[in-house]
Batch of 2 targets.
Target 1
Amino acid sequence: MNMMHLDVPLTLRFADLNCDGERARIDAWVRAQAGATPFHLPAWSVAVARACGHISHTLIAERSDNSLAGLLPMTEISSPLFGRALVSNGFAVDGGILTTEPNAIRQLGEAAWALAQELRCPTLELRGGPAEGTEWLRDEGNYLGFVRDLAANDDTELLAVPRKQRAEVRKSLASDLEVTVGRDAAAARAHYAVYAQSVRNLGTPVFPAQLFREVLSEFGEDADILTVKANGTPHASVLTLYFNGTAYPYWGGGTSDARSLRANDRMYFALMSHARARGCTRFDFGRSKVGTGPAAYKKNWGFAGTPLSYAKRAAAGQAPREINPLDPRYALKIAAWKKLPLWVANAVGPHIAKGLG
């Protein structure tokens, strides 16, 4: 006999992340949800708001017994170049509606849109999670997520990598490269130097250094930096989040010499080993645009791409905000940015990147 689903009465309100008790309660609930990501955690929202000067809004749904039934973390983005938007969640690739109650999906979405209108944000973005209603413009074919289980040990992990990429990893293991893991100021400086050069070479502005420091501070032992050095000089570095048994290498990059040194290959293989030692069983290689070099690189490592579902809602008569770097409108700007001296890119980039969200 099929059981009839009964809608559970829900109350929606905005959480106070300045209250330690409320924050701890939300943190525990998020960690217990199967579809949660580190971008749903209060730690992420607080770090982004503090580092970039944005305002965080965390919408929660509660049952009549005050137990949590849903969550929607949002960041209010304001940029003179890219306009205003309410994003779930800011500077993340996920963090949309998270709920255990089907009837909460529509309620959370409508409440978020009401907030967007109140804040005069013409665009509301949900990066992952469900969205109900014809008002949403859906993007379900442009981005891929790359996640798979970690192998039992290094030898098995190496065999899980397809032959061509495995050969590159073997060469990196035979090279005279040093791998370090840390969370201190020195590790953060080395990571930022590498990451800033990497994104400049790709033609995009670098985020403020404070964003990385705040994420490390808020996540504590659930975040660290792995760096690969050659002759004492950092050439590849990645800041990784650890959440519910999954490693999320989120901000990673390499110098101009990283490819010839195979520093990136060494970095990701070393990170898989490090994540396993931490007790992780899954590795989330992040998202990439369909048909791009990063997507191909991740497939070379044996990761199958899974389509990601995003949704946007825009004010009547307006097009939603679009900040995709592959948009042809940005081609000339990206080409020019690649030619900037690194010190110029590092000085100007953070002011622009704060508005990307």
Target 2
Amino acid sequence: MTVVPSIDHDGSALRDAWTCAFDAEEPGGWGQHRHDQHQLVWTASGSALVLAGERSWVLPPSRALFVPGGVPHDVVLRRPAALHCLYVWPRACPLPWTAPTVVAVSALLRELLRSLGGAGGDGPVAAEALALVLHELGGAATADDGLPWPVDGRARAVASRLLAAPADPTPLADWAAALRVGESTLRRAFVEGTGLTFTEWRSRARLQAALPLLDAGLPVAAAAARVGYGSVNGFGAAFRRRYGTSPGARRG
């Protein structure tokens, strides 16, 4: 069983909340870790891939992820990305969320998050500012349960490759051959580990990958092609089923 390290931030016991801003060239990928504080992950520009609780989310600036204290997670940045993290002790947080929760970042919430920690974006957060941020977060939760990750190591290897290159058209049979495993075994690993078929999983990964492209203003047809959809109509229908809105409505 893998032991997930617990991180203790310096001076954290002396403050209810604090924020950290990271350099735009920071790659992230610190490895799975956890801490007792809740964490809000947000990028002011660029995007981030967050793996938390055996699920993953892609976060453009219009979305942030609330990671409850104790949940193992990692953050991988797609550079250049301006990562901001807000840490809050459970004692100072009235939000009831016990699982990772995506929130929509409104114009007001964006400005509040940018203002935390002073000019450098690092430092303790005043009680009044924290109350405003938590109030905005409380009404901004979205119904996005993320992309479930397979448990089987071979299926996870395929999943990792597809997240890095979502347009990769390689069929399951070829992945199985490369891994020297039966196609039916690999197919079963996806279904048993995620509740999704390989095709369904890849479709969700592609839709996630399209979010930062649409946020950046890329035309819908170009975003669809970039993530591997051959049909704009098919992309639009899948996007609406997953996110409840058209891809055009998400364009920045």
